[in-house]
Amino acid sequence: MSVWLPGAPCTPSGCVVPTGTTRAVPGAVLRLAAVVVLVLAGVLLLPVGRRIPAGLVGRWCRWIVRAAGVRVRITGAAVPTGGLLLVANHISWLDIPLLSAVRPARMLAKAEIRQWPLAGPLVARSGVLFIDRDRLRALPGTVARIAAALGEGSAVGVFPEGSTWCGRGQGSFRRAAFQAAIDAGVPVQPVRIHYRDASKTPATAPAFVGDDTLFASLWRVVSARGLVAEVEIRAAIPPGSHPDRRALAAAAQPHGGPGRDHRAGQRAGQRTGHRVGHQARYPVEDLRSRPPEVSAVES
């Protein structure tokens, strides 16, 4: 077990429930093809990615999610410019374009991607920051690289849980990346991601957990109807507002709604006679009740 990448108890068989309504196979195939085309186009443009306007990158990220058949709803105040650590809970492969739709960022990725044929070198040239999850000694160097990128004015996107969860549970935010924000003296932008189905209840179909394969997860998403990705941009945490990385990580951690501790969800399921990830339903914060200054973007 990696120190940086702890495991989650979520599994496809125990947590993931397909939506009640599905698309016909031809429609799902077309959506899958559209996602693949958009992703390949992005891969080909990676070497010049930094020259593309941020607004266009954000739209392209939303197009990927919409091509998969998932509506996108983004709520929250404007994201700060300059160096910024973007942090979010992690449920699905969809989280990556969703976080980049909030603000294009240099993502933190596992070092194994660098060895992938063709895509690896292209991703490396795009400015992605890599972490060797199997070498704890490499962690200080990774933190230093993140801090350097932040100090140069870049946004860096991190999923501090270190693993994907089904959406009805959450892991604790690991603290290392928050040290980089402290060292660079930049704000932290917490983002909360969750998914709903056509009945407006928490959806686990987008989850990419356990031994799930990427194709199985892709097919589950493109064949589902009525999925909505809700992205809540919480108030940015200014530099110097917390004494250490532990307090900063705790302040950025989302609480309530589907982002509760998985074991607490299991206990709730036992009390109601339901298994977590199947029939149990937990309340989600209603994003319609927002302060006047909060904006909403839906596509």
UniProtKB/TrEMBL annotation:
Transmembrane segments: 28-49
Pfam families for this protein: Acyltransferase
Gene Ontology molecular function terms on file: acyltransferase activity
Pathway the protein takes part in: Lipid metabolism
Keywords: Acyltransferase, Lipid biosynthesis, Lipid metabolism, Membrane, Transferase, Transmembrane, Transmembrane helix
Domain of life of the organism encoding this protein: Bacteria
Sequence segments annotated as region (Disordered): 238-299
Domain annotation Phospholipid/glycerol acyltransferase: ranges: 84-196
Protein name, as recorded: Lysophospholipid acyltransferase family protein
Organism: Streptomyces chlorus
Taxonomic lineage of the native organism: Bacteria, Bacillati, Actinomycetota, Actinomycetes, Kitasatosporales
